[in-house]
Amino acid sequence: MKFFIDTANLDQIAEAQALGVLDGVTTNPSLMAKEGITGKNNILKHYVDICQIVDGGDVSAEVISTTFDEMVKEGEELAELHDQIVVKVPMIRDGVKALKYFSDNGIRTNCTLVFSAGQALLAAKAGASYVSPFIGRLDDISTDGLHLIAEIREIYDNYDFGTEILAASIRHTMHVIECAKLGADVMTGPLSAIEGLLKHPLTDIGLEKFLADYKKGNS
Ligand code: E4P
C-alpha cells in the first residue's frame, strides 16, 4: 500500500518524508487555501516545492477549471511543472473527457470527488491513473465509505483495470488499516493517521521495562 499525505503544509510533508514511508502527496484547493497559498504563480511554485520534498513521489495538483478545454489547458500546464505531478480532475462530465484526453497524451491523472462505484468504473474506463473515493465524507453522511472501497476493488479486479484505488478523505488510523485489508492501492490522509499506526501502549510499556532492566544490569 502506498502512503500519501493529504496536505499542502510543507512542514508536515517534510515530517512524513523524514519518517521514510511517504510515497506521495495529495492537495486540493481547500488545502492550498488553508496554507494561505493564493494567486496562480504562488500556487504553481508551491507544487514544485512539494515535489522537491517528496523524493520521486507523486504529487496531485487539482485543476480548478470545469470545462474540457480549460481543464486540458490547465492540466497540461500543471503536468509541465514537474514529472512528479499527477493532474487531479473532478468526476464531472467534462472531467471524464479530460481524463481520457490526458490518458491518451501520457499525462497521469487522479480522478477526485468519487462517491460511487459507477463513478469509479467510469474513471477507470477513461484511463485515470488513480481514482479517489472519499470515504470520510461518505461516513459523515451515514454511508459506509469502506464499503465503496470494497466495491471498487471487486470491479477493478474483475476487469484488471490498471487504475489505482486511492482511498481519500481518510480521517484516522482505523480507516488506513481497513483500507489496507480491503486492498486499496493507496491511502491519503493527515499526518496523524500515518503516525497513529506506530502507537501502542504495550510497546511503550515494554520498551520502558527493557531499558530499566538494561540499566539495572549495566550501572
Ligand atoms: C483527496 O485527495 C482529498 O484531498 C481529501 O482526501 C479530502 O479529504 P477531506 O474529506 O478530509 O477534506
Automatic annotation (TrEMBL):
Compartment list: Cytoplasm
Name of a matching Pfam family: TAL_FSA
Keywords: Cytoplasm, Pentose shunt, Schiff base, Transferase
SUPFAM superfamilies registered for this protein in UniProt: Aldolase (SSF51569)
CC annotations in GO: cytoplasm
Pathway assignment: Carbohydrate degradation; pentose phosphate pathway; D-glyceraldehyde 3-phosphate and beta-D-fructose 6-phosphate from D-ribose 5-phosphate and D-xylulose 5-phosphate (non-oxidative stage): step 2/3
GO biological process, one term: ketone catabolic process
Its EC number(s): 2.2.1.2
GO molecular function: aldehyde-lyase activity; transaldolase activity
Principal subcellular localization: cytoplasm
InterPro entries linked to this entry: Aldolase_TIM (IPR013785), TAL/FSA (IPR001585), Transaldolase_3B (IPR022999), Transaldolase_3B/F6P_aldolase (IPR004731), Transaldolase_AS (IPR018225), TSA/FSA_arc/bac (IPR033919)
Active site residues per record: K88
Reaction it catalyzes: D-sedoheptulose 7-phosphate + D-glyceraldehyde 3-phosphate = D-erythrose 4-phosphate + beta-D-fructose 6-phosphate
Function text: Transaldolase is important for the balance of metabolites in the pentose-phosphate pathway.
NCBIfam families: fsa_talC_mipB
Family recorded in the similarity comment: Belongs to the transaldolase family. Type 3B subfamily.
The protein's name in its UniProt record: Probable transaldolase
The organism of origin for this protein: Robiginitalea myxolifaciens
Gene: tal
